[in-house]
Amino acid sequence: MKAGIHPDYREVVFQDVTTDFSFLTRSTLGSKEKIKWEDGNEYPLIKVDISSASHPFYTGKHKIVDTSGRVDKFRKRYAQK
């Protein structure tokens, strides 16, 4: 591998903001936010809207997650007049 062209691969914590589920893994993503993990170390925190704890495929529950108002825009645009 060439030196200096690859992104930094480090441990980060991903947190599902809808369920407060968190997990520690490795990624090239970075963040200015930090979180203290169970092992006592601080890791960069990446917040996500959907994870395995909240995705309908894994939970078996159908739930509409609309963080940017797309569903309301669609309903307003195609409403029966």
From TrEMBL:
<dbReference type="InterPro" id="IPR027493">
    <property type="entry name" value="Ribosomal_bL31_B"/>
</dbReference>
<comment type="similarity">
    <text>Belongs to the bacterial ribosomal protein bL31 family. Type B subfamily.</text>
</comment>
<keyword id="KW-0687">Ribonucleoprotein</keyword>
<dbReference type="InterPro" id="IPR002150">
    <property type="entry name" value="Ribosomal_bL31"/>
</dbReference>
<dbReference type="GO" id="GO:0005840">
    <property type="term" value="C:ribosome"/>
</dbReference>
<comment type="similarity">
    <text>Belongs to the bacterial ribosomal protein bL31 family. Type A subfamily.</text>
</comment>
<dbReference type="InterPro" id="IPR034704">
    <property type="entry name" value="Ribosomal_bL28/bL31-like_sf"/>
</dbReference>
<dbReference type="InterPro" id="IPR042105">
    <property type="entry name" value="Ribosomal_bL31_sf"/>
</dbReference>
<protein>
    <recommendedName>
        <fullName>Large ribosomal subunit protein bL31B</fullName>
    </recommendedName>
</protein>
<comment type="subunit">
    <text>Part of the 50S ribosomal subunit.</text>
</comment>
<dbReference type="Pfam" id="PF01197">
    <property type="entry name" value="Ribosomal_L31"/>
</dbReference>
<keyword id="KW-0689">Ribosomal protein</keyword>
